[in-house]
Amino acid sequence: MAAEMLQFHEMGLDDRLLKAVADLGWSQPTLIQEKAIPLALEGKDILARARTGSGKTAAYAIPVIQRILASKQCVREQDVRALVLVPTKELGQQVQIMMRQLTSYCSRDVRVADISGKADVSTQRPILMEKPDVVVGTPSRVLAHLNAQNLVLHSSLEMMVVDEADLLFSFGFEADLKNLLCHLPKIYQSFLMSATFSEEVQALKELLLHNPVILKLQGSQLPDSSQLQQYTIKCEEEDKFLLIYTLLKLQLVRGKTLMFVGAMDRSYRLKLFLEQFGIPACVLNSELPIQSRCHIITQFNQGFYDIIIATDEQSLADPTASSQTTSGKKKKKSK
């Protein structure tokens, strides 16, 4: 008989943290959270492979916050105790949002600062002078602040996280990351979170981790190519929306679904069509502000929506195609 899943309230977490988790509607941990959080709370270094949307941000954010809250029980001066490295400013924003949601009942005790944006280093200096407990940023931005002495980590840092580790090298951060390590103390707890175990991630493992626990949670969840099937359905243009509804209603297509359409207005029309039948969906396209797009992805990952309707990027990138579509519509109306 399989062992019962470990629940959040059985992990020895601070009541304020448990309350924030409950507010987020998380009734039980995901697989990566169940495995990683207890190990992290024991002080172990972790290398975890888990796919996007598996809850891996909370898998490191919760133990980071718990450890900071525990350290605040002693009388200690305010300092930067955790560093989260991300490959993009968009991911930095998402991490900060998640951290702030989890610290909603202890925001005075755990302060989080995101410096991954493109603001001038001098503009961000006052934020770092307040010595937030957690700093989130790209390797190049963190290194710039370390070199400018806006950020000092060699004596205070206790935890470091590298999120989406497989993307760091492909985004050109290898040299910055290696230079950054010279500014860190000799002993600190590390977490590497990645969607894949590439050669670059293995190199990071040797560079950052000490006797890590390795969690390979993705392999059993995703089918290999031999298990995938592709189908093509031919139908009349006017029947496409009805066919999509039928596939969803009969549960021939189920679970998390990404739909691509050829034009932006079509994505909104499909969304409205599905909502008539009580099927919620969200629209994602390049015209939406970046914060809106991040919010949509977060809602999709958290289960508010199971369907994203996206517009083909090529049609957005080609202004000629756009103008032809517009003029074509006007002609139809005039007939």
TrEMBL record:
Highest taxon of the source? Eukaryota
Q: What is its main location?
A: nucleus
Record domain Helicase ATP-binding: where:
37-215
Q: What is this protein called?
A: RNA helicase
Q: Does the keyword Cell membrane apply?
A: no
Please give the Gene Ontology molecular function terms for this protein: ATP binding; hydrolase activity; RNA binding; RNA helicase activity
GO BP annotations listed: rRNA processing
InterPro entries referenced in this protein's UniProt entry, alphabetically: DEAD/DEAH_box_helicase_dom, DEAD_box_RNA_helicase, Helicase_ATP-bd, Helicase_C-like, P-loop_NTPase, RNA_helicase_DEAD_Q_motif
Q: Which gene encodes it?
A: DDX56
| Keywords assigned by UniProt, alphabetized | ATP-binding, Helicase, Hydrolase, Nucleotide-binding, Nucleus, Ribosome biogenesis, RNA-binding, rRNA processing
Principal EC category: hydrolase
A Gene Ontology CC term for this entry? cytosol
Record localization:
Nucleus, Nucleolus
| Sequence motif Q motif, location on chain | 6-34
